[in-house]
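A brief tutorial aside. Many learners find it easier to grasp structure tokens once they have seen a single protein encoded end to end. The record that follows does exactly this for ABC transporter ATP-binding protein. Read the sequence first, then the structure, and try to relate runs of similar tokens to stretches of the chain.
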Amino acid sequence: MNAIEISPRDDAVAAGAAVHLSGLRKHYGDVHAVDGVDLTIAPGEVVALLGPNGAGKSTTVDLILGLTRPDAGRVSVFGKAPSDAIAHGTVGAMLQGGALLDDATVGEMVAMVASLHRKPMPVAEALRRAGVEELAGRRGNKLSGGQKQRVRFAVALVSDPDLLLLDEPTAAMDVGSRREFWHSMQAFTSTGRTVLFATHYLEEAEEFADRVVLMRAGRIVADGSVAQVRALAGGRTLRAVVPGITEAAVADLPGVTEYQIRGAQIAVSSSDSDKTLRALLEAFPTAHDIEIAAIGLEGAFLSLTADEESER
Ligand SMILES: Nc1ncnc2c1ncn2[C@@H]1O[C@H](COP(=O)(O)OP(=O)(O)OP(=O)(O)O)[C@@H](O)[C@H]1O
């Protein structure tokens, strides 16, 4: 690892944080998988890590777990190096395709992991919380993809960790399992635990995270509440039917960042829809069928992660 200077302030922030990353970099040959990430997660936060394929989410999770060594920068978990935090049972993880044993039963696997920790929760409780009590006697090679995910969740929970790291936890789950999973997760987070989860499901981020961190090409491009990240992407869309409208008149409206015109129908994205609307009605008082909608997280995601391919 390259030497980096750690300021006393950085030390103090790291000591009080659940996760503290500063100047973090990981390159694979020419690929800048993680390219200068600074991130501080406070105890009790539930944070969604979003980004398109290859954005660096899994690499970031691996770095926090100490599974990969950074080329530069610093990782600390509750003020400790990742390996120490894991040895203390402070961190639980559910990774994409994390290995399960084919010949052991679900109950045996969870018990085995529990035996590695100093203060595990009872195995039956981990099985219950993860919704796999009924699968306790089933062998690893007899589980469906979604069931395997829930067993991985039981394994992650059994150390009774303060921080859970989840890499696309619901990827193989059907709608019902997904709902149950988040229900269990909310029971877990309501006790003040910290969760960082990588996901491709924007609605999961919208519904379950306090904070959204959006990555693109190894960097954080947005970080804030769902509402803040949406706002970053240009606010709202305004649609209306505007007799006599011209392209120049739309382009001149205040706050407009993008627009489309089809006949008398206009659809504009605006950073200040109140201002746009007032100006529109002043210039075109006969405008009608006006609709204003907040841009969804999906809109923000697409706009903030656009052009990724051309920049890699
Ligand atoms: N072990 C590795 N060797 C070489 N390149 C790697 C390795 N791990 C990751 N990469 C590359 O680093 C970049 C970031 O990958 P990463 O898996 O962190 O992205 P991600 O955001 O988790 O993507 P996805 O959503 O597809 O899981 C990608 O270009 C990937 O190909």
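Self-check: The CA atoms of residues 123 and 282 lie 67 Å apart. If you spotted this yourself, you are ready for the next section.
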